[in-house]
Queue: 2 jobs
Job 1
Amino acid sequence: MKRITTLLAALCCLGGLSAQTGYRPAPENLAARQQFADGRFGIFLHWGLYAMLGQGEWHMTNANLHYREYEKLAAGFYPARFDAREWVTAFREAGARYICFTTRHHEGFSMFRTAQSPYNIVEATPFARDVVKELADECHRQGIRLHFYYSLIDWWREDAPRGRTGLGTGRPAEKEDADAYFDFMKAQLTELLTQYGEVGAIWFDGVWDQDRNPSFDWRLGELYALIHKLQPACLVINNHHLAPFEGEDAQAFERDLPGENTAGLSGQEISRLPLETCETMNGMWGYRIADQNYKSTERLVRYLVGAAGRGANLLLNIGPQPDGALPAAALERLAAVGEWLRANGETVYGTEAGPVEPRPWGVTTRRSDRVWVHIFNCPDKELFLPLEGLRVKQAVRFADRSKVSFAQDDAGVLLRLGEVPAGADTIVELTVAER
Ligand code: FHN
């Protein structure tokens, strides 16, 4: 993976992955970046025809399903329980500040009304409703920003460039036509940015599909310039698992917090752009019927706080069911995270990474003269924080404002905590001043 990453990075510099050159973000884009970073918590939704198969969003290519057979799923797609108001309400009450929805995933099915292909939810399904429109209207009504996931890969379209996935879906090789495919993508992006009001971000995925084809050009510069022309405030995010290219407004990480790389997708350098890491609530992005392996609320809160302590947002994924409902296990966790954020959100929203780098015991977050010490696993009854350059004026437990005694010198502060429960997030608030 590291070798591929290095190769792709080199190609990007050589123009193999041309980015938007001479990009100067508009003032409204800079404001949107700040708003995005302040939000800290978003909900990722992977929903498409694949939900009906209950095997996750990669089943089409994993099982080498023929594209002419796969497309027949559309005629049976009737998610009767879909209710945009219920979804958005649940996300808002969970404390999420934005949603990122898969408008078209690698399977190639468009979950919105598009004039570019009849293979879309309005024309090809008996449901015949534009769920993106319903979500957009509801998000705007409830004050939640909406981001659009948009796959660069397509396993269904005959003209889509062939990479290393989707090769067994039966499409005739001679029909491949990158120019036609790029026109299609540009026309769809134009629809997404002109039919649904303000769009918070376009979230690309799939650059990595061509990592064995060094001369392939995703023409990202053209796509990015189009987005910034149509909606200057719309952020461009690209989950290519590399350091950001010019023209991108935030940096994505997948399944790991910035600086960690247990899943092998996040070894890239950390940029100065706003950061976002996406993670699943169970094991899969799209609905998988057999996967009830949901992370506990405690773990999800730790992940969210761990992201904030690294200056990053958490984009937490849910795979909606084929009937249009959100899984009960996901709803339970959303409600619990919401309860936690209502009590403790002040220590997460609008913060930056704190003065102490992430440690085995937890992380710190900061806003102006407040530093929040989030303690998940305290090894001792006392905790030393290296705080060179800062003087602590006061330390209290965030939960009940009770005083925490401390001692400090030039090197930092020693908090005398007493017993700290393991696992939960015990928060100590410090009021600090520059030395
Ligand atoms: O292949 C996709 C996958 O299905 C999912 O959408 C994730 C989300 O980050 N991105 C890709 C893998 O990197």
Note: Residues 43 and 381 are 36 Å apart (CA to CA).
Job 2
Amino acid sequence: MISLHIGIDDTDSPRKGCTTYIAALLVEKLAKINAKFLDYPNLVRLNPNVPWKTRGNGALCLRIQLEEGLLEEVKEFTIDTVEEYADLEYEGTDPGIVFFQGERIPKEIRMFARNTIQGLVKLEDAISLIKKFRAEAFGFKKCRGIIGALASIGETLENDHTYEIIAYRIPENYGKPRQLDEESVRRMDRETKPYTFNNVDPETGRILITPRGPDPILYGIRGETPEIVKKAHEMVRALEPIERWVIFRTNHGTDAHLRKVESISEVRPYHPVIVKGTVSKPPRIIPRRHVIFTIKDETGEVDCAAYEPTGSLRKIARRLMVGDLVEVYGGVRPPSEKNPLTINLEKLKILRLAPKISYMNPLCPKCGKRMKSMGAGKGFRCEKCGFRSKELEKVAVEEERDLREGIYISDPRSERHLTKPLQRYGMEKKHAKVRLIDGWFGFGKT
Ligand code: ZN
């Protein structure tokens, strides 16, 4: 028996397809030839902040054991399936497949995966690793998908991870409105919380498990264990046929894309970041209701943007004041002619609020009532008892802030696949203990 890791990426386009669907088809074919699955199919979201991403920027890896004699057959039907289902006519869809044989994934490939999730990598880097470790790569067109394919092999999800069950539509229904009993989704959400997440937007009540596009996905439910997402799937009542479903192990909801840097000078375009700073310019609202504020430290200054769809996060950002100490989380947009380098907020942690001081008229020393000003430099007069004074001065009063210290996250409807939702805080996994349930691997037809 040999161990084989199959990575696939960049097969879909905004108008057609889904790499997870190709993986779902392959899972079935592999099961038919009695391949032994070493893991759930891994669905690895890559850096959402790259300039050339397709839709979800998700790559897939299948990890199996099989008889050596079956190796060529597996490679052949993998390539055939990608060729058949990828949107090869679409400019910007450049599929890639990587096969890697071996029990353990070399550290360099794991590091490459981390850089693909948190930063920018080049196709040449992927190719040289593929040569060095005698992996095999197949690329279509510009071959860019080879990067994600190798990264999905290298991301072994040994730390925090989650699961997603995806149910697929029958092809006749692609492009038509998705038919689900919404009440069954709300009930599933109530009964499986907090072990599933992002099912329903709490503010608008909108169902979030269904995507919008013409792709084959009917819905996807995310959660902490394979059992809970399977159970949640059984609770949802679909009002259209489900062709098949698969459970994926993923880096969704883990913040895997964010890298903490020590200072603002280390903030680089396209590298999602966590960085601390003090608010140096007050929040300003720009057209389309986005909120921009500026933070600084001793190394530099950077703009932060809370866009309208981030909902409550934008409302929080608007209440910041110069002097507040914050930690910001988000993707980084390069400077343009109009705008400087900008962090697009996904989260905001308020570490320390600056005191809000306002100056008020003094209290009357005789009767305690707040005095009236008689005009600049002319002193104060008490309306109640008539006391006057030229010596008294305005007094500094600390006002209460309409903001609390703590972490704020964009509303689920605008959350990125990778953003860790509030309810997952404290549930992070430290190890990957993958239990494949006997006789049931995690895919099916009902
Ligand atoms: Zn008085």
Note: The pocket of zinc ion is lined by residues 364, 366-367, 369, 382, 384-385, 387 (CB under 6 Å).
